[in-house]
Amino acid sequence: MTHSDELLSPAAFEAAFRTIGAERYHSHHPFHHLLHTGKLNKGQVQAWALNRYVYQAHIPLKDAALMSRAHDPVLRREWIHRLTDHDGDEAGDEGGIARWLRLTDALGLARDDVTSMRLAHPGTIFAVEAYVRFVRERSLIEAVASSLTELFAPTIIADRVSGMLANYDFISREALAYFGKRMTQAPRDSTFALKWVIAHCRTRAEQELALDALRFKCGVLWSQLDALYIAYVAPGIIPPGAFRPDAA
After folding, report:
1. Model confidence over 116-175: pLDDT tens digits?
2. Domain count within the chain
3. Looking at the domain assignment, is residue 5 inside a domain?
């Protein structure tokens, strides 16, 4: 990619992030269109929920890795909310991981099959672990910027909840409790992260690294759906050891 050395204005920088989301966010993936419009069978929805658990379970690991590298107490104080959002807290919030397990329970998946991750598609494992490594090893600016897919989450969540409730008689609103919380958590988190990245990118090179980090994260999410589509939609090549709907 070629670019000038001139620093993007805050407005132009934010617009560049939003353009990446408009072009690359996984809301455009064919698997999601099938999921949201009721075109998948129960076994295919099970495969999606089981594999998505891998991503959910690794998010606190990613966030803890980021916090361990942050010298700024303001960043740490803000980021710690993400850990409790997923893991729960002593005040009684069960956390996002527990809410995701409500969905897999409702779909008839055995808890141990989900939480052990032994039936996950290897493509899912590879993509999720690549994301954790990225956050652990790349610059703090890139690590924070990679979270900015949350800018685009509310729209896909709204479509998912309405579409799944309308099209699947085996899905209830209670089973989708995870997404209700994310409608407020994701905007809060992305607002902070966007302001932080804009404020801390002081050169055009740093801005480009941040934009590339968001492209990378979009690719992580997209590649997870590629794996599901190839295995469970077409051509239907399920890797050895991965979840098989007819065996659920």
Report:
1. 999 999 999 999 999 999 999 999 999 999 999 999 999 999 999 999 999 999 999 999
2. 1
3. no
The answer to whether residue 50 scores a pLDDT higher than 50 is yes
Host domain of residue 214: 10-235
What's the CA gap between 156 and 167, in Å, rounded? 16
Structural domain contains residue 246: no
CATH of the domain at 109: 1.20.910.10
Cα separation of 191 and 100, whole Å?
24
pLDDT for 3 = 59
CA 141 vs. chain centroid, Å, equals 18
Cα–Cα distance, 119 to 68 (Å, whole number): 31
Total Cβ atoms within 10 A of residue 37: 13
